[in-house]
Write a structure and sequence with these properties.
The chain is of the alpha+beta class. The strands form three sheets. Strands 3-2-1-4-5-6 form a six-stranded antiparallel sheet, with no helix packed on it. It has a six-stranded mixed sheet with strand order 7-8-9-12-14-15. A three-stranded mixed sheet has the order 10-11-13. It is globular.
Length: about 240
């Protein structure tokens, strides 16, 4: 997926109040600021970003080109240990959709219909609904956490995430397919494992619903400053 809006680079000074980030610009940017100036960017990630906030990390911002927007720029990518990590959780759903439509995910091929953000369960929306033949409910989770050579999820306790697992288990009980798809927003990992040390209840729930028929997929991402694409399937390490 190409990033259509212009991107600019800077250095991350701090992330705070969850949705705000102070960034020192690397270059003069018309309408935004001059090189060395510190601006506030929107951080579109509700997680803790554990391990992804090194001091003065190189970052990529996306310019909305909307001068009326309160925070004109969005924090999109952070460089961690030499690897680019996508931290914009608004992007993975589109990336996974694009990959499914291109037939890149073997487990999710052969469906005639794909819809996004479809209501289901208890006041929820499924990220991707595949139909014909049957129904396949796909919940996409973006994760940035790396421990050693493994990607892990979640990076903070998540009651909402556990709710989504239970709802996938319910659609499996009804005779449909339920898939939890972990979009690992970086390429420098070799496997995926639930982050039991952070949220042991989530890990227990994931194992239980998997045993009950919920399918678990985890893929890396190929991240550049102006593009994001699905990378490689990862082995699951329970």
């Amino acid at each position: 997926m190409r990033i259509e809006k212009p991107v600019i680079t800077g250095r991350l000074l701090r992330r705070y109040k969850r949705f705000l980030a102070d960034v020192e610009l690397d270059e003069d940017c018309a309408g935004i600021g001059r090189r060395g100036e510190v601006i506030v960017a929107h951080c579109p990630n509700t997680g803790s970003l554990l391990g992804c906030l090194p001091e003065r990390a190189r970052v990529v911002l996306r310019d909305s080109q909307d001068p009326a927007r309160k925070l004109r720029c969005t924090l999109q990518t952070i460089e961690v240990d030499g690897a680019l990590v996508n931290v914009d959780t608004s992007l993975p759903n589109a990336v996974v959709t694009e990959a499914i439509e291109a037939g890149r995910v073997p487990e999710l091929r052969g469906f005639a219909s794909l819809r996004r953000e479809v209501k289901y369960g208890q006041n929820s929306r499924i990220d991707i609904l595949l139909e014909s033949p049957g129904r396949c409910y796909v919940e996409v989770k973006s994760t940035t956490l790396r421990v050693g050579a493994e990607a892990r999820f979640p990076d903070a306790v998540t009651e909402r995430g556990r709710k989504h697992l239970e709802e996938l288990a319910n659609v499996v009980k009804e005779g449909h397919r339920g898939v939890i798809f972990f979009h690992v927003s970086r390429a420098d990992v070799e496997g995926f494992k639930p982050a039991d040390e952070i949220d042991p209840v989530y890990g227990e729930t994931l194992r239980r619903v998997h045993a009950a028929g919920v399918e678990v997929l985890a893929w890396t991402a190929d991240v550049t400053a102006d593009a994001l694409a699905l990378g490689q399937a990862l082995p699951l390490r329970w």
